[in-house]
Inverse folding.
């Protein structure tokens, strides 16, 4: 079953809910880098993010998370076809071994 939240709705939600710590976007195929950028900008205390089955995300997300989420400890991207994990070095350097990253 596909989740039906739109990128616009997710963007509005994360701007209104500014104390999110753990976010799981499973089967949210319409999530893009725009809504995840808003998530990172408005929820700096985010410590866990899991995204599955999004074809709209790229490795650029790692730089955005690195810049805005200093408390991030776990990042998972499953079946996000345009996220290869190549960009993980930037976020790993920022978090100095305190971050678990899984890209599959």
């Amino acid at each position: 079953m596909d989740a039906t939240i739109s990128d616009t709705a997710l963007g509005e939600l994360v701007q209104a809910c500014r104390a999110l710590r753990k976010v799981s976007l499973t089967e949210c195929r319409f999530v893009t880098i725009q809504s995840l950028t808003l998530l990172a900008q408005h929820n700096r205390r985010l410590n866990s993010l899991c995204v599955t089955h999004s074809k709209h995300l790229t490795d650029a997300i790692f730089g955005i998370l690195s810049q805005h989420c200093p408390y991030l400890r776990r990042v998972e991207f499953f079946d996000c076809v345009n996220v290869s994990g190549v960009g993980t070095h930037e976020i790993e350097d920022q978090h100095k071994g305190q971050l678990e990253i899984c890209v599959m």
Q: What stands out?
A: The chain has one domain: 7-103. The helical segments are 7-16, 33-42, 60-68, 88-95. The CA atoms of residues 54 and 78 lie 8 Å apart. The domain at 7-103 is CATH 3.80.10.10 (Leucine-rich repeat, LRR (right-handed beta-alpha superhelix)).
